[in-house]
Amino acid sequence: MKSNNRKAEVAALNAAAMNGTIPDELNPLFIFGMTHNELLMAIATGKIDAAQLAKEQLAGRGIGKGGEWVGFDRAETEWAL
Fold this sequence. Notes:
Elements: H1 4-19, H2 37-44, H3 50-60, H4 72-78
Helix pairs in contact: 3-4
């Protein structure tokens, strides 16, 4: 069961999607929309660490913890990879 806080968050994100105040690619409700069930199951059961994958992806783009380009080596250091 969702907490009231989570329900309100989801409702706000749905409203933002409907009125166009948040682009779909930035709406966390849609992050897994195209993800295969097998991968979702692995994430949901802890077999895949989605946060770790995101850190690796950001480091691979040279993006540091502040969200800005810092270069590949520094990004790896900042993300402790």
